[in-house]
Specification:
Helices cover 48% and strands 18% of the residues. The protein is of the alpha/beta class. A 5-stranded mixed beta sheet has the order 2-1-3-10-4, sandwiched between helices. It has a 4-stranded mixed beta sheet with strand order 8-5-9-11. A two-stranded parallel sheet has the order 6-7. Helix 2 links the parallel strand 1 and strand 2. The N terminus is likely disordered. Bound molecules: beta-D-galactopyranuronic acid. The site of beta-D-galactopyranuronic acid has 11 residues, from loops. Beta-D-galactopyranuronic acid binds next to loops.
């Protein structure tokens, strides 16, 4: 063997050994996602996972599991906190059960617009929320858009709170949503997202509440033909990492992961804006009657006891509510 050939063989063997070591030490991250293929959050989260794998030279590989196959949202939040899951896109609604200050975001009609929500979440208040989440084992790196949530049902348009009388409405897992619907006059039913379609079909539920993209992708629009634009909740979502997985990263890899999450959020917000329009058009074409609500005042008035009870139980969060309310939209 020539010196050159020997050198090449030695180099190749060395590279293979290195690759094997990297492979053995590479972390394989599992990511939770509630949405199906093609949904804006799914596309952005999958690109986030690809970026981690590509930009860390294989020190990290990541895979997203869609359609909540790894468990319901509250269960997944628990799994992320104890390190059974590495990353996820969560709605901050169910997060309030784990991080008390986050519950402020679930006070109905808190934000005046989606733009105001972004101004809050992208500024110092958003930073406070991520610090509070971090204390509970959840590292939030960026915020996704989730539009505004409105009621839809199988029975009638909801124009005033009295129209909710007697309607069994699904809510996400959070006592504040039960209080919200009950105070408006409906019957709140907390239920996992994946069970809602069947329950609407069989009449176990009369309705639910969500944004246009989820109303579309969950196929709820096939059964619930009245969509009433109450826009009672504007909930941000997070790109969240388990603190256990985060702490195991080198500072260099933390920077890569943080940047990939910010890129994913920028991508998601663009896709989201398009999807909201497309989904609205699609459900209308499928026969859904969209009901604009000129005056949301009567719905907002019914929320006074919800705010009073919440602030009585959490007096320390009053200033946070005030600070959010006085933040100007971007
Ligand atoms: C969607 C949200 C999901 C989940 C779902 C639900 O809009 O993106 O994370 O919270 O609503 O209603 O359970």
């Amino acid at each position: 063997m020539t010196i050159k050939a020997l050198l090449r063989t030695t180099l190749l063997a060395g590279a293979a050994a290195l690759a094997a070591t990297a492979g053995a030490n590479a972390a394989s991250w599992r990511g939770w996602n509630i949405h199906p293929d093609g949904y804006p959050n799914t596309v952005a989260l999958e690109d986030f996972a690809k970026a981690l794998t590509a930009k860390t030279d294989g020190r990290l590989s990541a895979q997203v599991y869609n359609n909540a196959v790894l468990g319901d949202q509250p269960d997944a939040i628990d799994q992320l906190r104890n390190g059974a899951l590495d990353f996820a896109n969560f709605n901050l609604g169910p997060m309030g059960e784990f991080v008390p200050s986050i519950n402020v975001l679930s006070l109905p009609f808190l934000f005046s617009s989606v733009d105001q929500m972004h101004a809050v979440m992208d500024g110092p208040i958003g930073k406070r929320f991520s610090d509070d989440m971090s204390e509970q084992g959840i590292v939030s790196l960026a915020w996704f858009d989730s539009g505004a949530r409105s009621f839809y049902d199988t029975k009638r348009p909801i124009e005033k709170p009295a129209d909710l009388d007697g309607l069994k409405m699904r809510v996400m897992n959070n006592q504040l949503y039960v209080d919200m619907v009950d105070n408006m006059g409906g019957n709140a039913t907390p239920m996992a997202y994946g069970e809602v379609f069947q329950s609407l079909k069989t009449g176990v539920l009369d309705g639910a509440e969500n944004n246009f993209p989820s109303f579309d992708s969950s196929n709820h629009y096939e059964v619930a033909k009245y969509f009433s634009l109450t826009e009672h909740l504007i909930l941000p979502e997070c790109v969240c990492i388990s603190k256990t997985s985060w702490d195991a990263l080198s500072p260099e890899d933390q920077t890569i992961v943080r940047q990939a999450a910010i890129d994913a959020a920028n991508e998601q917000r663009e896709l989201w804006a398009k999807q909201e329009e497309e989904s609205r058009k699609k459900v209308e074409a499928a026969g859904v009657k969209i009901n604009e609500i000129a005056d949301k005042g009567p719905f907002q008035d019914k929320m006074k006891p919800v705010y009073d009870d919440f602030l009585k139980a959490n007096p320390d969060l009053k200033s946070l509510v005030d600070d959010i309310r006085s933040t100007k939209a971007q």
